[in-house]
Amino acid sequence: MSCELEGIHEECGVFGVWGHPDASRITYFGLHALQHRGQEGAGIVANNGGSLKGYRDLGLVTQVFSDEKQFERLKGSNAIGHVRYATSGSGSLDNIQPFIFRFKDGDTALCHNGNLTNCPSLKAALEKEGAIFRSNSDTEVLMHLIRRSSKPTFIEKLKETLNLVHGGFAYLLMTENAMIGALDPNGFRPLSLGRMQNGAYVLASETCALDVVNAEFVRDIEPGELIIIDDDGYKIEKYAENTQKAICSMEFIYFARPDSDIYGVNVHATRKRAGARLAKEHPVEADIVIAVPNSSLSAASGYSEASGLPNEMGLVKNQYVARTFIQPTQELREQGVKMKLSAVRSVVKGKRVVVIDDSIVRGTTSRRIVKQLREAGAAEVHMRIASPPLKYPCYYGIDISRTSELIASRMSVEEIRDFIGADTLGYLSIEGLVETIGLNADAPYGGLCVAYFNGDYPTSLGDYEREFLETVSEEDRRRIPAFAQKHSNYKGNEFAQFLKQCNCENGCSEDCKCDEDCCDVGCCG
Strand pairing of 167-174 and 106-116? Predict the structure, then answer.
């Protein structure tokens, strides 16, 4: 991940295995491969003949599980694990997963990757009914809802509950006799199934974790699917019919490891194609191409090949500065950039340099990089960004919660260029992003969520809606709710403002196709 993106985080990663005699150690290796998805804490729950035991703590996977005695306690042939990134104010042991819930009719462990857009209202309603929460994570909500379901079996209770929670989620559950995975109806977060040589099945947030434990890829879990794994094998069931693929495009841009495949598309290959497309969209006369390490290396390679410019190592990352060096103040963040990156003077001195990076978030890191390169003697610095401008927050499981954090939400490309001090600045277009990833699903943007770039959220934002809409322009307040209504397969998950402000004759029902000016939110057509 580049330094510019150190301030944006994936919520977490999940891993589970069923049917291996050393399940907790296998899970340890899987979590280690997913460490980039969360560095605040880690946990493992093992199932030994129906008895669930767990251990979790703050720290990296190697720090949390540094004692061999921990694995001796976590015996069993089945296990699930979790790595977490905690948002501000929630980095406590209470929020580290998996959680274990002990009931008179059996124990269940649960972990979660993503974010529920209706969690605050669900939680408030549950608390009114007497529910007690031991964490401020939205993961617990699912279990409280399951226990309140009147359905006869656990799977039926789970299916009903999954239709009550909205947003982005990949759940892993461990019961006494099964491991269960579930993906939201849009598939915002990836989840893959693999099979080990001894027949054990593995579920993981990324295929790189399957590779680490020598598991052969079987299939991706699709939106709205439930996978149940037990001693008899696995079976797939649907819990939602109105599904529509909208995988988070940021997984391809910078969150996923380059050796992972998402829905059959290799992450490194997409980044390299993005770099090549960027060279065509924003060519410039220059001498060398350099990457902001590490996740921009693939894009820089593509830009270099397409432009014919040599790809050089003009920036070096200090690999011994921990990725947990994420500081709360801007001054400390800028100091962190200097600790992490150094310009190679002998490479860039006197050269016209094209710098490839994943994105520009706040802009201060990019400005520092440009300054470092100029201080090292670069004649010109041309910034090229292998994604579109980040303008809107994410509510599906990535820590971009405020529009004000994003420089592109308040500045034009030219103003950003002036702010960071580059000679030129160019971003990959949304069309270029969609084409270079190439999912080609039968869904808007080929099955990608690109809301962070243009505000086209595939679902309503639930409890976040009012606060978000207050931060955007009047035009966006009309346009953004309309996209979910017109293009989403969800039923009853429209923006509340959309439903309130529509004045057209048909009331903007799902069949409304009119194109009248009477509609205050621009929802029709």
Answer: antiparallel
- How do residues 312-366 score in pLDDT, each as one tens digit? 999 998 876 554 333 445 555 555 666 788 999 999 999 999 999 999 999 998 9
**Residue owning tokens 């037990």:** 230
Would you mind telling me the total number of residues written for the chain in this entry? Answer: 525
Percent of the chain with pLDDT over 90: 73
- pLDDT score at 331: 57
**b/e code 251-263 from CB counts within 10 Å (16+ = b):** bbbbbbbbebbbb
The strand pair at 233-238 and 216-220 is best described as unpaired
Catalytic residues: 12
List, in sequence order, every residue forming a beta bridge with 181; answer none if it has no partner. 172, 227
Average pLDDT over residues 432-458: 96
Is the separation of the CB atoms in 125 and 178 below 8 Å? no
CB 42 within 8 A of CB 84: yes
3-state secondary structure 11-26: CEEEEEEECCCCHHHH
C-alpha 30/C-alpha 53 separation (Å) is: 18
pLDDT of residue 506: 43
Q: What are the two backbone dihedrals, phi and then psi, of residue 182, each rounded to the nearest 5 degrees? A: -145, 140
pTM score: 0.89
Residue type, 392: Y
Q: Would you state the pLDDT for residue 484?
A: 80
CA distances from 32 to 11, 35, 46, 469 (A): 16, 5, 17, 39
Q: Among the residues of 202-256, which ranges form H helices? A: 207-212, 249-250
In terms of Cα–Cα distance, which of 48, 44, 43 is closest to 24? 44
Q: Which helix (H) or strand (E) holds 110?
A: strand 106-116
Q: Could you give the CA distance from residue 229 to residue 175 in angstroms, rounded to a whole number?
A: 10
Q: Please give the full DSSP string across 309-332, using - where no structure is assigned.
A: --EE--EEE-TTS-TT---SSHHH
